[in-house]
Specification:
The structure is a single chain. By secondary structure, this protein is α+β, with helices and mostly antiparallel strands. It has 3 domains: 86 residues; 28 residues, no CATH class; 31 residues, no CATH class. 24% of the residues lie in helices and 24% in strands. β3 and β4 form a beta hairpin. The radius of gyration is 35 Å and the shape is rod-shaped.
Length: 195
């Protein structure tokens, strides 16, 4: 469900509507100023009247479909009240409080402090995160000190494998006989310790 927007989209009702009507007919040719929702997409419109102090009696409606100059709407959104509107009532696509609250909530979950450098104070990812470039971490990741573990990994020679042969190990002991002797001595000591 995506909320749609358009700059300066406004019109007037071509015919009046009652409180239970769910279609608005706009002035001829002015429907094209508004988005065309599909699927679960929508946009918001506000109807209002004027008096000597300015705008009054606002009603916010959710438009779920537009066919030319005809809008299909859900009435009385965001705690406004469905009203009877006469022809020529102004109708505008406006940013509303709930729209801005949604942006604030989404911004808080991302918590971007420096988007140009890719620095985040918090990140909520529902699917996956794709990063280009280096990631610098202070602290731990899932309880692991990445910097410390990374230093340990840096000490492993390039191309090292778990299936080394005697020739690759030979540099650490004088010969195979000495290695066998050391293993046997350790086994005897362990056996004595265990009693």
């Amino acid at each position: 469900m995506t909320q749609l927007y358009a700059n300066n989209a406004k019109s007037r009702l071509n015919t009046g509507v009652g409180t239970g009507d769910t279609t608005f007919t706009l002035n001829s040719g002015e429907g094209a100023r508004f988005p065309s929702p599909s699927g679960s997409d929508y946009f918001l419109v506000t109807l209002f009247t004027y008096n000597d102090t300015g705008e009054v009696n606002h009603e916010i409606c959710k438009c779920t479909s537009r066919a030319g100059d005809i809008l299909t709407v859900v009435r009385a959104q965001e705690s406004t009240t469905a009203r009877t509107w006469p022809s020529a009532t102004p109708l505008e696509l406006r940013v509303t409080k709930e729209t801005l609250d949604k942006f604030v909530a989404e911004g808080d979950s991302i918590g971007a402090t420096s988007p140009s450098t890719g620095t985040f104070t918090a990140l909520t990812a529902n699917n996956s995160l794709s990063v280009t470039g280096n990631i610098t971490v202070t602290g731990t990741v899932d309880g692991r000190d990445v910097a410390s573990d990374g230093s340990k990994l840096d000490g492993i020679e390039s191309g090292a494998t778990a299936d080394q042969v005697w020739g690759e190990i030979g540099g650490t002991v004088t010969n195979q006989t000495d290695l066998v002797a050391e293993i046997n001595a350790s086994a005897v000591a362990l056996s004595i310790a265990l009693g």
